[in-house]
Amino acid sequence: MLANGQHIIQYVEKLAPKSIAMEGDKIGLHVGTLQKPVKKVMIALDVLEEVVDEAIAEGVDLIVAHHAVIYRPLKNIRTDLPGGRLFEKLLKHDIAVYTAHTNLDVAEGGMNDWLAEELGLTQVEVLDPLHTDFLKKLVVFVPKTHRDAVFQAITAAGAGAIGNYSHCSFQAEGIGTFLPAEGTKPYIGTTGQLERVEEVRIETVIPASRQSAVISAMKAAHPYEEVAYDIYPLDLPGKVLGIGRIGKLPEPMTLRALAEKIKERFSLTGVRVVGGLDDLVKRVAVVGGDGNSFVGKAGFRGADVFITGDINYHVAHDAAAAGLRLIDPGHNIEKIMKHKLAAFLAERLQKDGYATEVIPSQTHTDPFQFV
Q1: Tens-place pLDDT, residues 302-359
Q2: Which of 201, 140, 150, 208 is nearest to 171 (CA)?
Q3: Which residues have a Cβ under 8 Å from the Cβ of 197 and sit 6 or more positions away?
Q4: What is the pLDDT of residue 19?
Q5: Which of 79, 128, 216, 232 is in Cβ range 3.0-4.6 Å of 84 for a Cys bridge?
Q6: pLDDT for 95-135, tens place per residue?
Q7: Do residues 288 and 266 touch, judged by C-beta distance below 8 A?
Q8: What are the b/e assignments for 56-85, b being 16+ CB within 10 Å?
């Protein structure tokens, strides 16, 4: 059984909801349709013509990319020019393109967490908070026969998480009453007769961002035609989401050693460094992509070194004057998402019994090289 394109994107948006993207970001479906079965998905950092050629050769139906294929307004689609040829090939071969950009950067377990993990950082926190996912309380009444089914469904959808604990709830047994009116098809009871049923009251917390998914899962698992449930707002902050991460290396190391480690971990031929190469560093901030606007935040948060791409000349001078060391490995270290997101999608598709294949793009898209 093949997964539908829209179903595949639901997995992506569970990891990286559109709602957490930065304002104005060009995310979502850019080319084609998701209303089709998908044999093969390719995960790419950039959608260049060479990447599209790779997708055609691999028999790909859907490209999930980090960088937008339509970033600036299109003035034309000329098929005698590289930009137009790219779209011609996508449309001729019915290849859809979906983009997850800053929502993947911000997401817990997304781009910046992957980078922090690859660097071996501990005690990791969000560098620049953007969203606080406030908690709500869900109360649902379930017949005892379906307690476990409903409980497992809502926790799988994101309910019941408190800190590092999952499946948190309070459950109490009691008697539920209802009288099915004419035209109903009750799972338990008879139309026109008052029923008394042994039920379980399940109380748990849900992040506001997961409310829709949790309610959908609850209703799908619940046997009743009309589900009795309540949602209560809570003045309790949940997870904090934002751009970048800051944490600590397991042991202090020199700036030179950290730069060499980054070259090795991300298969780079060189990096740009600002600061004394023999300086010891331990507290590290990282932002995937262009992090010029976060240099001040990294310094304010007490980072010894800030790792990010596309650092400008004058920004580098400002950082040096402020005593903040920099390592610029280039924008392309975000290529880590190709294997990470491919593994994430493949695991979930396989778990749900789909035969859809997921592959990371093998095309190297970094335009820069060191000589």
Answers
A1: 999 999 999 999 999 999 999 999 999 999 999 999 999 999 999 999 999 999 999 9
A2: 201
A3: 143, 175, 176, 177, 178, 188, 189
A4: 87
A5: 79
A6: 999 999 999 999 999 999 999 999 999 999 999 999 898 99
A7: no
A8: eeeebbbbbbbbbbeeeeeeeeeeeeebeb
Per the document, the length of the chain is 371
Place of tokens 């309380």: 137
Residues 6+ apart with CB under 8 A from 127: 112, 242, 243, 244, 245, 246, 285, 286, 287, 294, 297, 298, 301
pLDDT tens digit string along 264-287? 999 999 999 999 999 999 999 999
Q: Which of 213, 165, 160, 161 is nearest to 13 (CA)?
A: 213
The pLDDT of 287-298, averaged and rounded, is 97
Question: Residue 163: what pLDDT?
Answer: 84
User: Given a cut of 90, is residue 201 above it in pLDDT?
Assistant: yes
Supply the pLDDT for residue 342.
98
Q: How far apart are alpha carbons 87 and 118 in whole angstroms?
A: 34
Mean pLDDT of 160-181: 94
Q: Which pTM does this prediction carry?
A: 0.86
Where residue 106 falls (left for φ over 0; alpha for ψ -120 to 50; beta otherwise) is: alpha
The residues pairing with 129 across neighbouring beta strands, listed in sequence order, are 242
CB 256 within 8 A of CB 278: yes
Find tokens 């740009």 and name the residue: 272
Query: Looking at 6-15, 74-83, 227-236, 338-347, which range is the least confident one?
Result: 74-83
